[in-house]
Amino acid sequence: MKVAIVSPCFGVLGGMETFICALAKELHALPGVEVTLCLKKVTTFKLDWLLEKTARATGAQVAFVERASRELAAVIRNSDIVHCQNPCFDVALLAKLFGKPLVLTMHSQRHRSFRPRELARRAAWHMADRRWYNSEFNWNTWDPERRKHASARLPVISNLPTGAVPVADRRGFIFVARWIPNKGVELLVDAYARAKLDRQQWPLILLGDGPLRPMIETKIREEKIEGIEIRGFVEEAERNDAIRHACWMVTPPHTKEDLGLTPMEARNVSVPVIITRDGGLPEAGGRHALVCEPGQVGELKALLEKAAMMDPDTYEQLCEATYRELQEYLQPLSVYAAHYRDVIERR
Question: How many CA atoms lie within 13 A of 192 on its CB side?
Fold first, then answer.
């Protein structure tokens, strides 16, 4: 079985890229499966070394291609099934042209618009043999009334950190995301600055980078906000270790987040989460998350203080409960191979 995993790509290792690299690695290890990881360059594509390193380490064939290109057509023509991340019209059209089954994983919500781009996405969505959604929130934006028979929620999250550390070895809060508007980094810094906390026991570690970094650094310096440590982008092992050693993961976007990978990463190492009621985040954070409304600095400040004041026994029970709930929610990457074969046989 020759599988082409196709994804639009900005050139950096984000949540979707992490997912497809882990999936490619899992499939490559299966007997009788050949995998091509095809990363389709978007207009602002700029290849980061960490993405290329991660993609090559999967063992799959890796191709960086232009959209609607001969190279993309060759990848699709030589496959038995095409697994596209989000609906891409050029990929759907080429799959139809070559008679290849097309399956979609929907990482993003539907935006109701008559702009050509959205109409093309909708057309590609209709051409798929099967559609999988990473959250109920996403599914509801595409199928709000009638669920299509070839659709399902498939919350498969890849490459999660493992191995919880003792509570005594944990300290403070951690934020992991790109520093772009609506991801909540500026909101979190404001809330942390106002919160009444022991800054030694409850530091705030900020991982990631982006266009908001100069503004955040200036704010911390000028307002003399103590307790914040900026680490920027770090490699996966260091990132996962930082998550394990935090008491809480804080994920406070106000952008209708499609799902939210970082709360699940934290929960998989028994670190509970503080989130906003934004898009699919309540699903990612689970029933045991501390939740506030998006964009509310005062509410987020109160949750930081509540987390810091939680008694040790309650905290340990929360750690165990959020981990157990996540294990019941997720499905293993290996389910994809069975789904691919089913789609091919039905064709």
Answer: 30
The answer to whether residues 13 and 46 touch, using CB atoms and an 8 Å cutoff, is no
* Average pLDDT for runs of 10 along the chain of length 347: 97 87 94 97 93 96 97 98 97 98 90 87 94 84 73 70 95 95 95 97 96 96 97 92 98 84 94 94 94 97 98 97 92 88 93
In what order do the strands lie in the sheet containing 248-251? 228-232, 204-207, 173-176, 248-251, 273-276, 290-292
Coil, helix or strand at residue 1: coil
Q: How far apart are CA 239 and CA 15, in angstroms?
A: 13
Q: What global pTM score does this model have?
A: 0.72
Cβ burial, residue 186 (10 Å; 0-12/13-18/19+): middle
Identify which of 243, 240, 235 has the alpha carbon closest to the alpha carbon of residue 53.
235
Q: What is the pLDDT of residue 157?
A: 62
Residue 250, SS3?
strand
Cβ distance 124 to 92 under 8 Å? yes
Give me the phi and psi of 152, to 5 degrees please: -160, 155
Q: One-letter amino acid identity for 247?
A: C
- Number of C-beta neighbours around residue 332 at 10 A: 9
Which domains are assigned to the chain? 2-156+331-346 (3.40.50.2000), 167-329 (3.40.50.2000)
